[in-house]
Each structure stands twice: as structure tokens, then as C-alpha cells.
Amino acid sequence: MFTHVTVGANDIEASRQFYDAALGALGVDPGQGPDPKGRYWWRTPRGAFAVGAPIDGEPACHANGGTIGFAAQTPEMVQAFHDAGVAAGGRAIEDPPGERQGPFGTLVLAYLRDPSGNKICAMHRVG
User: Is position 97 within any domain?
Assistant: First the structure.
């Protein structure tokens, strides 16, 4: 459904280091860039994710109620995403990483705030 997601950042280098670590734990290659607009891009065969300063020149801010979810191939990758993200300047939020039961079955989830406050998550669908 999505081709790409872009989030704003006030400290591009801190965000690049954070996403290289967190997404690297999910098997994603390091971000490429900066592009002509100063953004870094992480690409997979299924889509792309970018971090950059807002084009309008205003400070970056996070979406209240927004979450960006990244697919994890294994439950261990979810934990690795969490650990790498925290070590690279992210902040753990919500429940600790682990299994959750819900209307969509069993999921393994980990939630973080990136250095600019964006809410992200790694998710592995069990079964």
C-alpha cells in the first residue's frame, strides 16, 4: 500500500545513526544520502523510509497518535531493534518488547521514540 514514509528530524546525524542501528537490526542496509534536500533514505524491495529536515524550514515535530511500524522477520529481531535503537539515542516507550494478543492474532512488538520524538515500532506476526 505504501511506497515510502518520511519523518522530520531536527538533528539529521543523530537520526541517521539511530535508524542505521535500529533498522540495521532488522536487516536493512544503512541509509543512503544525503539527497539534494538533505534527506537520508533506507530502501528495501517493498518500500523506502526517509529522515530529513522539514522542507518548509520549520522545526520537525512528531505526530501525536502516529506510529510507523517496521516488519521484523523474527521475534529476536524485534528485541534487537529495540536494543539497538535505545543504544543509539532512542527512548523505550509503552510496554517492554514482547508478545501481545489482540484481534489480529499474536504479535511481537517493540515501541521506541526516535531522537526527534517520532513513534516507531518493530512487529513480528507469529504464525
Answer: yes
For residue 61, tell me if it sits in a domain. Answer: no
Q: Which helix (H) or strand (E) holds 50?
A: strand 47-52
**Cα–Cα–Cα angle for 127, 103, 76, nearest 5°?**
40
- pTM to 2 decimals? 0.92
pLDDT, tens digit (0-9, with 9 covering 90-100), for 6-35? 999 999 999 999 999 999 999 999 999 999
- CATH value at residue 32: 3.10.180.10
Spatial CA neighbour of 47 closest among 5, 77, 109, 107: 5
Cβ neighbors of 66 (< 8 A, separation 6 or more) are: 118, 119
User: Is 60 domain-assigned?
Assistant: no
Q: What residues are paired with 48 via a beta bridge?
A: 4, 43
Q: What is the pLDDT of residues 31-86, one digit of tens each?
A: 999 999 999 999 999 999 999 999 899 999 988 788 999 999 999 999 999 999 99
How many domains is the chain built from? 1
Provide the residue range defining the domain that includes 110: 4-54+66-125
